[in-house]
Design a protein that fits this description.
mainly alpha, about 65% helix, globular
């Protein structure tokens, strides 16, 4: 039968105790292995516990969501939506107030502005295109016409510009935002010109022989007359926003209007405005060129921003 082993030498009671201890150790080992596997899973990319090595989605260092990325914001901007009336009224009012405030805050550098005016007038005459003096004197001889032009210069261009904005809002709400942004960009670009190149209008040029039609014909409400002249910058003539705004109105109406006579009037409007600003002695024609440059830059900026021509409807998905 052979010699007894260590196990067989034990009593039956001892062998039963060893069996129980071995089973308990096996169960404990299995529990530890399961816990290890669970802990390893918790440290994976799907973990949500505090010890997770994945990104902390609740912390302050969370990256901005896709809705705030530059691409998403650009897509949102380019998506046509109906403009809100209250927002547009507040935007126009606040923007014009800020524009007037900044424009009138430009230092009134009289000596520099007059020197620039002499330079512009001399350059135009050198080109043989110094027509301002002749137009100013010729139209001043027709009292009713020049008085009407004075009032036009002082106020009507505001009314027409706002009128075109309202028409655009009502008749073409899906195309409203880009043209409106062109108008705003043009206006704000003009502020750079006012700061960089102070320029006196022809009517304030000593020795130029121009007639100040507002002063001669006593135009009520003009910002260049009486006490109002002290709160308005008289040396912010370059560029001419009368031309910038009127040309914007003309291009907008000509592009979107359907009736032929309306489109013709739209094209004539900036031409008439150019006549007014020269006849009243408020601008050189080079100021008008500056207004056209600002408007062109405004169209270019908005074209780049929207990725299409300003008046073209957004592509449908």
């Amino acid at each position: 039968m052979g010699e007894p082993t260590a196990d067989t030498a034990k009593s039956p009671k001892a062998r039963r105790a060893d069996h129980v201890d071995t089973a308990g150790a096996g169960a404990a080992g299995a529990d530890r292995a399961g816990t290890a596997r669970t802990g390893q899973g918790a440290s994976g990319p799907d973990a949500s516990g505090p010890d997770s090595s994945g990104p902390d989605t609740g912390g302050a260092s969370r990256a901005p969501g896709p809705g705030w990325s530059p691409g998403a914001l650009l897509t949102r901007l380019r998506t046509p939506r109906r403009p809100r009336l209250w927002f547009e009224l507040v935007l126009i009012g606040v923007s014009y107030w800020l524009y007037s405030l900044i424009r009138n805050a430009v230092p009134a550098q009289r000596a520099t502005a007059l020197r620039h005016a002499h330079g512009v007038w001399g350059f135009e005459r050198h080109l043989g295109l110094g027509v301002e003096h002749s137009v100013n004197h010729a139209l001043d001889s027709v009292t009713w016409l020049i008085v009407g032009m004075n009032y036009y210069y002082a106020s009507l261009h505001f009314v027409i510009t706002i009128g075109v904005l309202v028409w655009l809002y009502v008749a073409h709400p899906d195309r409203y935002a880009p043209p409106r942004l062109v108008l705003f960009a043009t206006t704000w670009l003009a502020l750079i010109g006012f700061w960089a190149y102070p320029l006196a209008p022809p009517r304030l040029l000593p020795g130029g022989g121009f007639i100040d039609t507002v002063a001669v014909h006593d135009t009520w409400g003009s910002l260049s007359q009486g006490s109002l002249a002290h709160v308005s910058n008289q040396y912010a003539a370059m560029p001419s926003m009368h031309i910038g705004w009127s040309l914007w109105c003309g291009v907008t109406v000509f592009t979107l209007a359907r009736r032929r006579w309306v489109r013709v009037v739209a094209l004539l409007y900036p031409v008439f405005t150019l006549t007014v600003i020269i006849a009243t002695g408020n601008h050189f024609w080079l100021d008008a060129v500056g207004g056209v440059v600002c408007l062109g830059a405004g169209y270019g900026l908005v074209w780049l921003l929207y990725g299409r021509w300003v008046y073209r409807p957004a592509p449908t998905s």
